[in-house]
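Hi, here's the filled form for the chain we discussed.

Project: internal
Contact: R.S.
Residues: 323
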Amino acid sequence: MKDLKKYDREFLVGLLKQMILIRRFEEKASQLYGIRKIGGFLHLYIGQEAVATGALAALDLAEDYVLTAYRDHGHAIACRMDPGQLMAELYGKATGVSKGKGGSMHFFSKEQHMLGGNGIVGAHLPVATGVALKLKYKKEKGAVLVFFGDGAIHQGTFHESLNLARIWNLPIIYICENNQYGMGTDFRRVSSVHDFSVMAASYNIEGEQVDGMNVLSVYEAVKNSLVKAKEGNPAFLEIKTYRYKGHSASDPAKYRTKEELAAYKKSDPIIILKDELTDNSVIGEEDFTGFDAEAREIVEKAVLFAEESNDPPAEELYSDIYM
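And the returned structure, exactly as it came back:
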């Protein structure tokens, strides 16, 4: 049980509402993918909501930056990007955040400093490191959060980026969302080190393992690391979480047992925070029901916006292309 006295009610309720919205958005996206309203790839964030929600609650997006991988819906919503435009992007509509050309893996917002999801495992780590170098070079106040999965840990870009971040003392936090599986492989089968946080020591960087099913634990860890990062001390956080769905919408996830999934669902991040808030009389059951209804309404409006939006014009095929 966390000590909730140091947080105000608005902050705590905001975290809960954010996670519920991400969950309902993802559930609707899954449903729409099933009836072929959405095509391409779809990597759902269900179960991992506390990571993006807690981490981004510590940021000031007027000066800080976010980059992530292909499982990017939750991060985009936590960056306060418009759900309607996000849904329109999934639909491939002109009103989408990437003009309908990026799809699920490439949400982007210059205004919200969300510099994109990335479809190539680990490819965005050097990009994020470059953004941090830009902040230092221009003597700006911000820092960078870069999210990636456990499958990216063994990419050379991870090690190269951490090394450069330490050499240059960059304002960046590397966040591994360890959801236990790289596609369909348990991370312990492919890694000689099971506590990824110790890898940070190889680059003289502080590493920490964080409970990714508790949004307040994530918030506190990122908040503390952010202060150090802005002083020129990059950090690496391994945030232990779990995805309740398969790697992508086409993955039946038969490589894990029903018992394992059921056990992790007892640690649902939304229910953990909800129980803490109700046990401490911060909210009641009727409040939670209301938050859920509000999230469902937002998502339904997002779907309607996407349905009513126009397809991109044919000439858009050639815009924003480096030739």
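Let me know if anything looks off before we file it.
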